[in-house]
Design goal:
336 residues, alpha+beta, Serine Threonine Protein Phosphatase 5, Tetratricopeptide repeat, 3 domains, four-stranded antiparallel sheet, 11 strands
Amino acid sequence: MSVKRWIIGAAILGQFALATPLAAQTKSGGAAPKSSAGAPKSDPKADAKGAAKAEPTPLEKAKQFVKSGDKSAAAGEWEDAYADYSIAWTMYQGWETALGLGKSAAKTGHNAEAVARLTLYLKDAPAKEVSDKQRKELEAMIKESTAKTGLLTITAPPGGDVYIDRNAVGKTPLAEPVRLDPGKHEVEVRRGEAGESKSTEVKAGATSELKFEPPKTTTKVVVQEAQYPWRTPVLITGTTLTVGGLAVGGVFLGLSFDREAAKKEAQKNLYGRNDFISAANDEAFNRNVMLWGFIGAGVALAGTAAVFFLTRTSPKSETTTALVLNPGGLTIRGDF
């Protein structure tokens, strides 16, 4: 039956929407003035006034469902009454629609809602609307429903939107624990697009606590994907040339020392002129080869180091920038 009530409620809302322009036409006020051709002439001010009178307020719409709910409640059909009162509450949330919803919620096992609605009614309804007898009855009903519910304390970083069973509850920090019916409940705290959900069990007469930790800050590492297919061969070649240059320079340095010693020995011999000239020539040649070997090794080392540091792939944070040597030139990469 409650499903039927919801369908009827939706149909009535549709009728309100269709009835508005008809009412505006019928209540625009008497016969419209005619033009010279005999056709009725529209009066914009009268039409607007009639439309304003015809359009019911949200409270007037809600009271129709309250009346329907009252009839179902009087007949003991509390599920249907709860459906009607719930529709009225969605149209207008005030003490005028809270009483019936609170009573029917208590009768149908929605005790947490009963406590909330009946408490609101006693707080906001004018004193003339609530007799002493009714107040005592409602207070007893609130006490009985309260004993059938539990409390849930939600602890979470401030600024998060709290949803319980997909219903919005408020923003963190919540001013007080949330009263819920016993059973499992899905609690979600959203912050922007990110959110965290947890399930919890609420027991009647008990207070449960659910904690949401602050989101962990993680640094995302992005690896630069610049491709240098020639990098490895160049590094290998440069390293080989560096080692080879040092080796050649070292060998010929040793040979130049040997030729220098031979040259000095030839100077001591009165007949060692030819040996002296030969040793001197050998020494000069060895020193030249040694020099160019070391120079070549230095150039190869500098070039190899430049290629290694400028083309290496290194991890970086998303918020950093980097200079990357591409085949087409120098590129600045990063998030700006």
